[in-house]
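Chain A, query sequence.
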Amino acid sequence: MQGRPHLQPVLEPVPISDLLEVQRTILQMLQTRTTRPRSSRGTPFFAGFLLILMLSLSGTALAQNLDALLAEAEVMGASIAIIKGGEVVETWVSGERSSVTNQPITSETVFEAESLSKPMVAYIALRLIEEGKLELDKPLAEYASYSDAAHDTRYLKITTRMVLSHTSGFPNFRTPGEALSILFEPGSFFTYSGEGFLFLQETLEAITYTTLEDLARTYVFEPLEMYSSSFVWQTDFGQKIAVGHSDMGAALDKFIPQKANAAFSLHTTASDYARFMVAVQEGEGLGRGLFKDLTMAQVDALDGIFWGLGWGLQPTMRGQSIWQWGDNAGYKSFAYLEPDAEQGFVFLSNSANGMLVLHSLFESILSGPQTAVRWLNYERYDDPQYLLGRRLHYAVLAGGIDAAKTEYEAAKEDLDALAFQEDALNSLGYRLLRQGLIEESIAIFAFNVDLYSSSANAFDSLAEGHLAAGDLESALENYETSVRMDSGNVNGISMIQVIESQLQQQN
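Chain A, predicted structure.
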């Protein structure tokens, strides 16, 4: 089973005058770095340590050193729009649009905005409510039926408020080919749901007799002069698009949306989306009552975070900051804005590694608590376990499990003791599994079992590796070991039943 990432403390600021030589040293190291395993055991730790110092600088210094930060976290590229006093005052860019073409990212570069789509759809719905075309608490099925959920009559209770606050009861996304299920009574719990927004999209299109793309153009893109934004593919995007990349820097096939998808198909620039956020936080086009509802906690999402109408809410001394994140294959994004649009930023990246730098960006651009960032619980690039996993990743690709074991021992000389925990190798095993490197993942999981022979979780993960390889007997053996150690391992118990049934059919 996949482990959870760890968080690290924030360092105190360091004067920029003391770090100029540090910057030059880092840039020299990064210019000579390749995607091959590092031959020097001390270099990765040294570079990471120096980058931590650099990230303690002010926002201006961070902008100057963004290239070094992204290089150390192995993020292909990013665009960051800075908001102050209700204005988009600056855009920081770094990196490349594609590892194949090596074209630089500019302020005009278009990214997939993933789930940043949802707040925009929420805003369109609120505008239609303001115009009397939609009601916040009227069931959506009273406007238009939804055949995907018609098998469960509970869907008849789902309202716009429930969709926007992620309490519809729908899952995030269903497995392709499966019926759409309702997980719980609508309106009772927070469960993040893209499927709810697809239901809302069908309703909006039905009551207006138009498409979501046309609605966005009418209520958002044209009024806010967002000329590089669309829910569907535009021909001129080809000259400006940032291609998504894997965590190892491989360019991925580009998703070309021909039909708008309310949950994830928005394409935009950092500055375009920042202008949209300012308009929302200033209540543009919304009456006082509806804007109050937008920024009022509709449901407790736990750990200090609430959800309003379409946005995550982080409470501050001055009111509710609005925020949202996005996570598609090869792209990561985050948008955050304080009350009255006083200050915030939009971060778009074309890399699976994008969220590794989110903590550092937030620390350097904004003051105050990082409640939303901690709620997301992504790995950060300077976490000791992540640093160990990355080193072993390069080692196993270059020389197999023996090289990884050698690097594991070598890393003890310069990595914090916190790195050497079960989750580090467990996370690496799953990373390899996602890349289709099944034999390598099994070797890492087995190494983890050797190191943590009393861990039920380690055996469960090894079983998953063998299952991916089609080795049912080995998978069954390791699931059984895991369940003996932890009788509460529900996943292991169910998988034993599935595998035993498959083996019986084979015999």
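Residues 2-57 have pLDDT under 50 and may be disordered. The two ends are 29 Å apart (CA to CA).
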